[in-house]
Design goal:
Radius of gyration: 21 Å
Shape: globular
Organism: Litchfieldia luteola
Number of domains: 1
Strand order of the largest sheet: 6-7-8-3-9-10-12-11
Helix content: 25-40%
Membrane topology: Peripheral membrane protein
Number of helices: 12
CATH superfamily: P-loop containing nucleotide triphosphate hydrolases
Structural class: alpha/beta
Distance between the termini: 24 Å
Keywords: ATP-binding, Cell inner membrane, Cell membrane, Membrane, Nucleotide-binding, Translocase, Transport
CATH topology: Rossmann fold
Family: Belongs to the ABC transporter superfamily.
Bound molecules: adenosine-5'-triphosphate
CATH architecture: 3-Layer(aba) Sandwich
GO molecular function: ATP binding
CATH class: Alpha Beta
Length: about 325
Amino acid sequence: MNSMLEVKDLKTGFDIDGDFYHAVDGVSFSVKPRQIVGIVGESGCGKSVMSLSIMKLLPKGIGRIAGGEVVFQGKNIESLSENEMNSIRGKDISMIFQEPMTSLNPVFTIGFQLEEIMLNHMNISKKEVRERAITLLQSVGISRPEKIVDEYPHQLSGGMRQRVMIAIAIACQPKLLIADEPTTALDVTVQAQILELLKSIQEKNDMSIILITHDLGVVAEMCDEVIVMYAGKIVERTNVDNLFHNPQHPYTKLLMASIPRMDEVVEELATIKGIVPSLKNMPQVGCRFVDRCPSATAECRTVTPKLAEVESGHEVSCLLYESSYPKESVR
Ligand SMILES: Nc1ncnc2c1ncn2[C@@H]1O[C@H](COP(=O)(O)OP(=O)(O)OP(=O)(O)O)[C@@H](O)[C@H]1O
């Protein structure tokens, strides 16, 4: 199989006051088996809406997929019933979030929550499930798992809770893990431990990961491929090496200039002035980054750039590069 996941021209949005607004607008990318794909961009770029679309977990009654396809292991998720989707979620695709306290149920023990997911998805006895819960806790670096299994989420530290979330997410050995800002709420030492843990599980279980983050240090540490999103669209897609050494889109360049680097002495770190446009204020033509772009021209307000390859495996959506695109690579 070439791709574990294929997202094709995905359009997702929200019905607000009788109008429909796109939060993800024509996004295409794929994730190969065992690949770690990072999705970066400022708050409000559509990263979380995209992952909720993949999981078919958009808020009911307001959020919906309006176009395109999400194909997981060859199956278009749009064609799957809620029951079929329930059997995929947690088993084949799992998700971990930034703040485990909101995902863990405070009234049930850690063991109950781990066992529940395995009983739902695996053909396994009550005794086996208990043993496996303890082994899983051990495998995510929790000491005294026989004791922790009977404790409640509030009895654990933030780092321990995130380890528990990872144990729940990998309990059924999913093929794809979507990690949405998994370490943002943790201090740097614990963050490094959790990232190391995720990487070792990914290698051991042959899992693919979509890692959503605004932290480029995390991207450098973890990812193979990176997608840079801005205002619901992909503005650049490339491998990690290119992202750091050969960024092309003005937005990516500014993101790069806003992080401290060991190999360069700079007077002042760059900041990106302004904010991501809200859904209601999204420009309908032209480049969505135009108001904040140091390289913008008048044309950027009237011509919508297309994502195209500037070199093999490196796509950019910016008029600055459009004249150099090979015609057949534009999409
Ligand atoms: N339930 C919702 N109802 C209406 N608009 C929403 C809803 N959820 C998200 N949005 C809007 O969709 C856009 C994309 O939001 P999203 O949460 O995907 O951004 P993000 O890149 O994940 O940001 P963050 O890093 O802060 O999580 C934003 O403009 C946001 O306000």
